[in-house]
Design a protein that fits this description.
Uridine Diphospho-n-acetylenolpyruvylglucosamine Reductase, domain 2; Uridine Diphospho-n-acetylenolpyruvylglucosamine Reductase, domain 3; Alpha-Beta Plaits; 17 helices; about 35% helix
């Protein structure tokens, strides 16, 4: 009996979908290269079937059958990934978590909430807001991603400087391992019980199991919010301004810095780099933070800008052009996020933007920072390359990625901040982890998934 036939027998036709429309809609995630291939040739073939479990028991049955038949299994949230984490083939089965969307429990005393892994991120936040609470996790893809996907990609949100990244917000993870067994990882607000096994699933991208449930640590909704914006003459001046703010101890949830090119997209009159901040929390803390940041800007020679710039950003921050619009102009584009310590971040910025700008047909090579830490920050590069022929588009795309990755690695930065690894960064994991680290990751994969059925080809570099 084939794996699809066995799944049909075990789960029934309402949970095992084989119609052409469903299969076509689940061939890949939102990686530009997959859309480019759809449009100009080389599209990913459809999976053997799409599975829609409605319970943890369903997921366990699916994983056990996949393991028995040696069938590749790809977990799928809402398909918002942008690094090639999902590409199907005729031999693969796709596990669509879109029917597991329950809010299992809310604990307002301990500020905890447990969701099914397929819960839409924006719906989860809205549910908590109705109770005067917030998750505090605001990725650009919040309306297009799931809470399980946040864990699987080790995601970061736009308010992370105060509220943390997903690893700082997650309390416990429920997951089905590749042998079909169920684990619950995480029990208390903090534990010294050996290695933190939650981190096996954080950033695992479907390669080590299927996340089925997530418990997050909530916050009370902030009492007050305030906005500030400043002009810095150079990126280095802005970096120093941000460094001083966080190392003194202030934590505006949003701290973003745009280079001159991106500042002009943020507000038309921009002549320099722009730093914007959102301050929120108890009213007294917000008042003190705004006063301190404003005084620091004045001492360092940064010019105050209207807070309407930040208001505009808040209202438009998730509006971006779709791939079809870009590809229709014979253009490839993407955003690439990296990170580096404070004493190297300017060098990363200079080297990467200069290198990408030298690619023939480059129309944009710019960056902004969006996540700030005591020991460094990230950079979010944007590139756009326009070509005369569709034949050269994919090569130009990978050339831009190669140059940003190489510049970041050469300058001592980390080649991934929050979008994950997928396929586009997989070979750079050897640079990121070193040979010993890459070998350790392969050993972990072999131990947990000895048959190699879980999302093969993603994240883990070949030996």
């Amino acid at each position: 009996m084939s794996s699809v036939a066995a799944l049909l027998e075990a789960l029934g036709p309402t949970k095992v979908l084989t119609d052409a429309e469903t299969l076509a809609s689940r061939r890949h995630d939102y990686w530009m290269v997959s859309h480019l291939r759809d449009r100009f040739g080389g599209a990913a073939p459809a999976p053997a079937c799409v599975l829609r479990p409605t319970s943890v028991a369903d997921v366990q049955a699916i994983v056990r059958l996949a393991a028995k038949h040696g069938t590749p299994l790809l977990p799928f949230g809402l398909g918002s990934g942008v690094v090639g984490g999902v590409i199907t083939g005729p031999e693969t089965i796709l596990l669509d978590m879109g029917s597991m969307t329950a809010t299992r429990s809310v604990d307002p005393v301990n500020l905890l909430v447990t969701f099914d892994a397929g819960k839409n991120g924006l719906e989860a936040e809205q549910d908590m807001a109705a109770q005067g609470l917030t998750i505090g996790h605001w990725p650009q893809s919040i309306a297009l991603s799931t809470v399980g996907g946040w864990i699987a990609t080790r995601a970061s949100g736009q308010f992370s400087t105060a509220y943390g990244n997903i690893e700082d917000i997650v309390y416990a993870i429920e997951a089905v391992l590749p042998d079909g067994s169920l684990v619950n990882l995480g029990k208390g607000p903090r534990a010294s019980a050996g290695p933190d096994l939650r981190h096996i699933m954080l950033g695992s991208e479907g390669t080590l199991g299927v996340i089925t449930g997530v418990t997050l640590s909530l916050r009370r909704a902030p009492e007050r919010q305030a906005l500030t914006a400043f002009a810095a003459k150079t990126m280095r001046e802005g970096f120093e301004f941000q460094r001083e703010i966080v190392q003194v101890g202030w934590r505006p949830p949003v701290m973003r810095q745009y280079d001159e090119r991106e500042s002009r997209r943020l507000h038309e009159d921009a002549a320099d780099c722009t730093v914007i901040m959102v301050h929120e929390g108890p009213a007294g803390l917000v008042e003190a933070e705004v006063a301190a940041v404003t005084a620091l800007a004045e001492r360092m020679g940064l010019k105050a800008l209207p807070d309407t710039i930040v208001t505009h950003w808040l209202g438009h921050r998730n509006h971006v052009a779709g791939w079809d619009q870009i590809l229709g102009r014979t253009m490839v584009a993407d955003t690439v996020e990296v990170s580096a310590p404070w004493d190297r971040i300017a060098e990363v910025y200079d080297a990467a933007t200069k290198s990408v700008s030298e690619i023939p047909g480059c129309r944009a090579s710019s960056a902004h920072s969006s996540h700030v830490y005591r020991s460094g920050l990230n950079l979010y590069f944007t590139f756009a390359i326009q070509l005369d022929s569709t034949d050269a588009m994919e090569a130009a795309y990978f050339e831009a990625w190669q140059r940003i990755m190489q510049a970041t690695a050469d300058c001592g930065g980390s080649v991934a901040h929050h979008h994950g690894i997928g396929r586009v960064r997989r070979d750079w994991m050897k640079t990121e982890l070193g040979e010993g680290g890459a070998r350790l990751l392969r050993s972990l994969k072999a131990a947990i998934d000895p048959k190699g059925i879980m999302n093969p080809g993603v994240m883990i570099p070949d030996a």
